[in-house]
Every structure is written in structure tokens, then in C-alpha cells.
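Slide 14.
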Amino acid sequence: MEEKENIEVQETEVAQEVAEVQETQEEEKVTVLKGSKRERGQRKRKIETVEPVESEWKEQVVQIRRVTKVVKGGKKLSFRAIVIVGNKKGAVGMGVAKAAEVIIAIQKAVADARKNLINVPIFRTTIPHTITGTSGAGSVILRPASAGTGVIAGGAVRAVLELAGIENILAKSLGSKSPLNAANATLNALKDLRSFNDVAKSRGISLTKMLTK
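Slide 15: predicted structure.
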């Protein structure tokens, strides 16, 4: 009888110990969950407080055109996007891309434009000299203008000049009215511009001497 009573007492003690261990484990789990919830809340707050950084590069869609390609079995529909990218500090580029969706075409055109950036020599918010650019059947004439004139241009030519950072200029588009030709002609003209320093170095004289003549 005494042995049975001892066994029962040992079993009750073991059961109590197991119950206490389970209670402590549950309390630890609750504290861990509370801590994780707090951490998640803090992370969410941190994510919400982060402000988006504005990029210096600006994008402008010049044209979105639906094009079809005749393939075996019918016609394949796609979209062509022309996008101008610039930082308004002398860097500008144009990209052309095609895709089955408009958004994808714009994204591909932006990536293409950033690969084809050119540097534009700007002199007192305008260009150094008059120049003409051509592309296909289209041509664009660019002339420097005094302060307060603004950008006298339209369409794709205006988009290229504004994103390049030119504030005062006179432009005239001749020939083809295609936005692609106009933008290409404008970029070709800006690419051929020469700064006063480059001209002075090529002549072998100082900049002040060249400007005072």
C-alpha cells in the first residue's frame, strides 16, 4: 500500500512539473508573439515614414502609335512608343521601342533613351550659335535667343529642348512632320553644337580674344 501511495505521489508531482513547464512555454510564446507584432508595427511605421526620393531625370512621351506586322497566320499588333529623357542640365536622349502593351513599350523606350544620352553645350540659357539638323526628310533650324524669349517650338522639338535645359531658343521644323524625324533632327543639331571654348582651342587663341573680335 505504501509503495502504491508513493508511486501516486510521484506521478502527481511529475504531472505538476509538466504543467508548470507547459505554462512557462506558453508564456514565452505569448511574449515572443507580442514582440514580433511590435517589431512588425515598428517596421510598418518605418516603411510608411520613408519618403520617396525624386529623380533628377524627367521623362516625356512624345508619341504612342499602334503598329501591325504581317506574320504567318495573320497580323501581329503592337505599340511603338517614343520617349524623351533629360535632366534639364544639359543631358538629353531619345528612345524608341515596341511591345505588345503600352506600359512595357514606354519602359523599354525609357531604358533605350538613357543609353543614348548626349551632352548639350548651354550658354546663358540658350545655345552658342545657329545650327540646322536633319533626319530623313525632316530638318530643324535652331537659333539662340535673348533672355525672356522662352522656348519657341512645338511638338517633339519642344520636348527635346525643354528636357535638355534650354530656356530661350527659336526653333523651326521644316519638311517631314513626323515626331520621330523632328526629334532626331533636333538631337542631331544639338549634338553638332560647339562651345566657345572648343572653337577658341581649335583656333589657338584665348576665349577673351575670340569674343572681343
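Speaker note: Confidence is low (pLDDT under 50) at residues 2-7, 46-50.
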